[in-house]
Amino acid sequence: GKLALQGGVSSDLIVNGPIEAIREDVQRRIKQLGQRGGFFCNADQYMPWPEEHYRALQDAVEEFGRYPLE
Fold it and tell me: Is 15 helix (H, G, I), strand (E, B) or coil?
């Protein structure tokens, strides 16, 4: 069977930023965990994040999470 994984991005990083570090971590996690598919890149848990930090995560997933991964 196949396994899917959701999460991977540290909630602490999303809370504290900076935005560039969030973007870099999203790209790193997608490359580490998404090579064979089945990875839903998101925060590792729910927190009340700063809106701009969570938006940075979403934007980075949209930018870096397309196959084939570079």
Answer: helix
Q: Whole-model pTM above 0.85?
A: yes
- Give the three-state DSSP class for 25: helix
Which pLDDT value is given to residue 68? 83
CA 14/CA 48 separation, integer angstroms: 10
pLDDT digits (tens, 9 = 90+) for 43-65: 999 889 999 999 999 999 999 99
39 forms beta bridges with: 5
Q: Cα–Cα distance between 65 and 67 in angstroms, integer?
A: 7
The 8-class DSSP code of residue 16 comes to H
SS3 36: coil
